[in-house]
Design goal:
Helices cover 37% and strands 26% of the residues. It contains 9 helices and 10 strands. The relative contact order is 0.17. The structure holds adenosine-5'-diphosphate and magnesium ion (MG).
Length: 242
Protein backbone atom coordinates (compact mmCIF):
# COMPACT_ATOMS: atom_id res chain seq x y z
CA UNK A 1 0.00 0.00 0.00
CA UNK A 2 2.88 2.41 0.72
CA UNK A 3 3.40 5.04 3.38
CA UNK A 4 1.38 8.23 3.46
CA UNK A 5 4.17 9.84 5.45
CA UNK A 6 7.49 8.66 6.72
CA UNK A 7 9.07 10.63 9.55
CA UNK A 8 12.78 10.22 10.19
CA UNK A 9 14.84 11.51 13.11
CA UNK A 10 12.33 14.25 13.81
CA UNK A 11 13.17 16.63 16.65
CA UNK A 12 11.50 19.72 18.03
CA UNK A 13 12.76 22.14 20.64
CA UNK A 14 11.13 25.17 22.20
CA UNK A 15 14.12 27.24 23.29
CA UNK A 16 16.40 24.84 25.12
CA UNK A 17 13.57 22.41 25.86
CA UNK A 18 13.78 19.42 23.53
CA UNK A 19 10.19 18.24 23.33
CA UNK A 20 10.60 15.64 20.55
CA UNK A 21 13.78 13.56 20.26
CA UNK A 22 14.70 11.47 17.26
CA UNK A 23 11.17 10.39 16.35
CA UNK A 24 10.90 7.73 13.64
CA UNK A 25 7.34 7.10 12.65
CA UNK A 26 5.50 6.18 9.49
CA UNK A 27 1.88 5.67 8.59
CA UNK A 28 0.59 3.46 5.82
CA UNK A 29 -2.35 4.29 3.64
CA UNK A 30 -5.52 3.14 5.41
CA UNK A 31 -3.77 2.61 8.70
CA UNK A 32 -5.21 3.77 12.03
CA UNK A 33 -2.46 4.66 14.49
CA UNK A 34 -3.16 5.82 18.04
CA UNK A 35 -0.56 7.72 20.03
CA UNK A 36 -0.80 7.38 23.81
CA UNK A 37 1.30 8.74 26.65
CA UNK A 38 1.25 11.00 29.69
CA UNK A 39 0.42 14.67 29.51
CA UNK A 40 3.51 16.58 28.38
CA UNK A 41 5.10 13.63 26.58
CA UNK A 42 4.97 15.44 23.22
CA UNK A 43 1.89 13.91 21.55
CA UNK A 44 0.33 17.21 20.45
CA UNK A 45 3.68 18.55 19.30
CA UNK A 46 4.16 15.45 17.16
CA UNK A 47 0.76 15.93 15.48
CA UNK A 48 1.44 19.65 15.05
CA UNK A 49 4.79 18.85 13.43
CA UNK A 50 3.13 16.32 11.11
CA UNK A 51 0.85 18.98 9.66
CA UNK A 52 3.44 21.73 10.10
CA UNK A 53 1.52 23.85 12.57
CA UNK A 54 4.95 23.65 14.21
CA UNK A 55 8.12 23.58 12.17
CA UNK A 56 10.36 20.72 13.30
CA UNK A 57 13.86 21.57 14.53
CA UNK A 58 15.43 18.65 12.70
CA UNK A 59 14.75 15.46 10.80
CA UNK A 60 12.72 14.69 7.73
CA UNK A 61 9.08 14.25 6.78
CA UNK A 62 8.97 12.22 3.60
CA UNK A 63 5.80 12.67 1.56
CA UNK A 64 5.56 11.26 -1.97
CA UNK A 65 9.28 10.54 -1.91
CA UNK A 66 10.35 14.06 -0.95
CA UNK A 67 11.41 15.63 2.31
CA UNK A 68 8.79 18.33 2.50
CA UNK A 69 10.78 20.30 5.07
CA UNK A 70 13.15 21.27 2.28
CA UNK A 71 10.39 22.68 0.14
CA UNK A 72 9.66 26.38 0.00
CA UNK A 73 5.89 26.17 -0.23
CA UNK A 74 4.64 24.20 2.76
CA UNK A 75 0.97 25.00 2.14
CA UNK A 76 0.88 22.52 -0.67
CA UNK A 77 1.63 19.76 1.82
CA UNK A 78 -0.41 21.18 4.71
CA UNK A 79 -3.68 20.95 2.84
CA UNK A 80 -3.27 17.18 2.56
CA UNK A 81 -3.10 16.70 6.35
CA UNK A 82 -6.43 17.29 8.10
CA UNK A 83 -6.63 18.09 11.78
CA UNK A 84 -9.37 17.76 14.38
CA UNK A 85 -8.69 19.68 17.58
CA UNK A 86 -9.80 19.21 21.17
CA UNK A 87 -11.52 22.63 21.10
CA UNK A 88 -13.18 22.14 17.65
CA UNK A 89 -11.81 25.47 16.27
CA UNK A 90 -14.94 26.16 14.24
CA UNK A 91 -15.54 29.64 12.83
CA UNK A 92 -18.19 30.90 15.23
CA UNK A 93 -19.63 33.56 12.94
CA UNK A 94 -20.41 31.13 10.16
CA UNK A 95 -23.04 28.46 9.86
CA UNK A 96 -22.23 24.78 9.65
CA UNK A 97 -22.25 24.62 5.84
CA UNK A 98 -19.95 27.63 5.49
CA UNK A 99 -17.58 26.14 8.03
CA UNK A 100 -17.31 23.09 5.78
CA UNK A 101 -16.94 24.94 2.47
CA UNK A 102 -14.67 27.93 3.13
CA UNK A 103 -11.42 25.96 3.08
CA UNK A 104 -12.47 24.01 0.03
CA UNK A 105 -13.18 27.21 -1.89
CA UNK A 106 -10.17 29.22 -0.70
CA UNK A 107 -7.48 26.55 -0.53
CA UNK A 108 -8.65 23.86 -2.96
CA UNK A 109 -10.27 26.37 -5.36
CA UNK A 110 -13.45 24.33 -5.61
CA UNK A 111 -16.60 25.99 -6.89
CA UNK A 112 -19.33 26.85 -4.40
CA UNK A 113 -21.60 24.14 -5.80
CA UNK A 114 -18.95 21.45 -5.66
CA UNK A 115 -17.81 22.49 -2.18
CA UNK A 116 -21.39 22.38 -0.90
CA UNK A 117 -22.04 18.98 -2.41
CA UNK A 118 -18.91 17.54 -0.81
CA UNK A 119 -19.64 19.22 2.53
CA UNK A 120 -23.21 17.91 2.58
CA UNK A 121 -21.99 14.42 1.84
CA UNK A 122 -19.65 14.47 4.85
CA UNK A 123 -22.19 16.22 7.07
CA UNK A 124 -24.41 13.21 6.33
CA UNK A 125 -21.60 10.85 7.25
CA UNK A 126 -21.30 12.48 10.69
CA UNK A 127 -25.08 12.84 11.10
CA UNK A 128 -25.11 16.66 10.98
CA UNK A 129 -26.75 17.33 7.61
CA UNK A 130 -29.92 18.63 9.29
CA UNK A 131 -27.90 21.45 10.87
CA UNK A 132 -26.41 23.17 7.81
CA UNK A 133 -27.82 26.57 8.81
CA UNK A 134 -26.96 26.33 12.49
CA UNK A 135 -24.21 28.44 14.06
CA UNK A 136 -21.66 26.71 16.30
CA UNK A 137 -23.07 28.32 19.48
CA UNK A 138 -26.39 26.54 18.82
CA UNK A 139 -24.72 23.13 18.87
CA UNK A 140 -23.63 20.81 21.65
CA UNK A 141 -19.96 19.94 22.00
CA UNK A 142 -20.47 16.56 20.39
CA UNK A 143 -22.27 18.15 17.45
CA UNK A 144 -19.53 20.76 17.05
CA UNK A 145 -16.88 18.10 16.97
CA UNK A 146 -18.80 16.11 14.37
CA UNK A 147 -19.00 19.27 12.21
CA UNK A 148 -15.25 19.76 12.69
CA UNK A 149 -14.71 16.20 11.46
CA UNK A 150 -16.92 16.83 8.42
CA UNK A 151 -15.02 20.03 7.70
CA UNK A 152 -11.69 18.21 7.82
CA UNK A 153 -12.98 15.38 5.60
CA UNK A 154 -14.33 17.90 3.09
CA UNK A 155 -10.72 18.89 2.34
CA UNK A 156 -10.06 15.35 1.01
CA UNK A 157 -7.04 14.84 3.26
CA UNK A 158 -4.52 12.05 2.76
CA UNK A 159 -4.61 11.55 6.51
CA UNK A 160 -6.72 12.91 9.34
CA UNK A 161 -5.04 13.79 12.63
CA UNK A 162 -7.09 13.90 15.83
CA UNK A 163 -5.72 15.60 18.95
CA UNK A 164 -7.78 14.41 21.93
CA UNK A 165 -11.05 14.95 20.05
CA UNK A 166 -13.25 13.95 22.99
CA UNK A 167 -11.33 15.51 25.89
CA UNK A 168 -13.35 18.74 25.92
CA UNK A 169 -16.71 16.97 25.74
CA UNK A 170 -19.25 16.22 28.44
CA UNK A 171 -19.17 12.48 29.10
CA UNK A 172 -22.55 11.85 27.49
CA UNK A 173 -21.26 13.24 24.18
CA UNK A 174 -18.08 11.23 23.92
CA UNK A 175 -19.83 8.21 22.44
CA UNK A 176 -21.32 9.97 19.40
CA UNK A 177 -17.89 11.28 18.36
CA UNK A 178 -16.14 7.97 18.93
CA UNK A 179 -18.84 6.23 16.90
CA UNK A 180 -18.18 8.51 13.93
CA UNK A 181 -14.42 7.96 14.26
CA UNK A 182 -14.93 4.21 14.37
CA UNK A 183 -16.92 4.32 11.13
CA UNK A 184 -14.20 6.39 9.47
CA UNK A 185 -11.55 3.94 10.64
CA UNK A 186 -13.51 1.08 9.14
CA UNK A 187 -14.01 3.00 5.89
CA UNK A 188 -10.27 2.94 5.18
CA UNK A 189 -9.39 6.53 6.13
CA UNK A 190 -5.78 7.00 7.24
CA UNK A 191 -5.93 8.27 10.82
CA UNK A 192 -3.46 9.35 13.49
CA UNK A 193 -5.23 9.74 16.80
CA UNK A 194 -4.12 11.06 20.17
CA UNK A 195 -6.58 9.94 22.83
CA UNK A 196 -6.91 8.81 26.42
CA UNK A 197 -9.86 6.57 25.47
CA UNK A 198 -7.95 3.32 25.86
CA UNK A 199 -10.79 0.88 25.15
CA UNK A 200 -11.61 2.78 21.98
CA UNK A 201 -7.94 2.82 20.93
CA UNK A 202 -7.68 -0.92 21.48
CA UNK A 203 -10.79 -1.54 19.43
CA UNK A 204 -10.12 0.57 16.34
CA UNK A 205 -6.33 0.90 16.01
CA UNK A 206 -4.06 -1.09 13.75
CA UNK A 207 -1.12 0.11 15.81
CA UNK A 208 -0.51 1.82 19.14
CA UNK A 209 2.46 4.12 19.72
CA UNK A 210 3.50 4.89 23.31
CA UNK A 211 5.39 8.15 23.87
CA UNK A 212 7.22 9.27 26.97
CA UNK A 213 9.35 12.38 27.43
CA UNK A 214 9.56 13.15 23.73
CA UNK A 215 10.49 9.64 22.65
CA UNK A 216 8.59 6.78 21.07
CA UNK A 217 9.26 4.15 23.71
CA UNK A 218 7.33 1.29 22.22
CA UNK A 219 4.85 0.52 19.44
CA UNK A 220 2.90 -2.50 18.32
CA UNK A 221 -0.52 -3.96 17.74
CA UNK A 222 -3.15 -3.15 20.39
CA UNK A 223 -2.77 -6.69 21.67
CA UNK A 224 1.01 -6.44 21.94
CA UNK A 225 0.98 -3.06 23.57
CA UNK A 226 -1.93 -3.42 25.98
CA UNK A 227 -1.60 -7.09 26.89
CA UNK A 228 2.11 -7.58 26.63
CA UNK A 229 4.00 -4.29 27.01
CA UNK A 230 7.76 -4.74 26.96
CA UNK A 231 9.07 -1.56 28.54
CA UNK A 232 8.78 -0.61 32.19
CA UNK A 233 7.62 2.87 31.27
CA UNK A 234 4.80 1.48 29.12
CA UNK A 235 3.74 -0.86 31.92
CA UNK A 236 3.74 1.98 34.45
CA UNK A 237 1.69 4.23 32.15
CA UNK A 238 -0.86 1.52 31.40
CA UNK A 239 -1.23 0.70 35.07
CA UNK A 240 -2.23 4.31 35.69
CA UNK A 241 -4.36 4.63 32.55
CA UNK A 242 -6.34 1.39 32.33
P1 LIG B 1 1.13 16.28 25.18
O1 LIG B 1 0.26 16.62 24.03
O2 LIG B 1 1.66 14.89 25.16
O3 LIG B 1 0.49 16.60 26.51
P2 LIG B 1 2.70 18.53 24.26
O4 LIG B 1 3.22 18.17 22.93
O5 LIG B 1 1.55 19.45 24.34
O6 LIG B 1 2.44 17.21 25.10
O7 LIG B 1 3.86 19.21 25.09
C1 LIG B 1 5.13 18.60 25.26
C2 LIG B 1 6.02 19.60 25.98
O8 LIG B 1 6.28 20.70 25.11
C3 LIG B 1 5.44 20.17 27.25
O9 LIG B 1 6.47 20.29 28.20
C4 LIG B 1 4.96 21.53 26.81
O10 LIG B 1 5.00 22.44 27.87
C5 LIG B 1 5.97 21.92 25.75
N1 LIG B 1 5.41 22.80 24.72
C6 LIG B 1 4.40 22.50 23.85
N2 LIG B 1 4.14 23.52 23.03
C7 LIG B 1 4.99 24.52 23.38
C8 LIG B 1 5.22 25.85 22.91
N3 LIG B 1 4.51 26.36 21.88
N4 LIG B 1 6.17 26.58 23.52
C9 LIG B 1 6.90 26.07 24.53
N5 LIG B 1 6.74 24.82 25.03
C10 LIG B 1 5.80 24.05 24.47
MG1 LIG C 1 -1.69 17.26 23.95
Amino acid sequence: MGNVIDIQHLSKSFGSHEVLKDINFSVEKGEVVTVIGSSGSGKSTLLRCINLLEIPSGGEIIYHGENILQKKNLNDYRKHMGMVFQQFNLFNNWDVLNNCTVGQKKILKRSKAEAEEIALNYLKVVGMDRYVKARPHQLSGGQKQRVAIARALSMSPDALLFDEPTSALDPEMVGEVLRVMKELAQSGLTMIIVTHEMEFAREISDRIVFMDKGLIVEEGSPDELFNNPKHERTKAFLQRAL
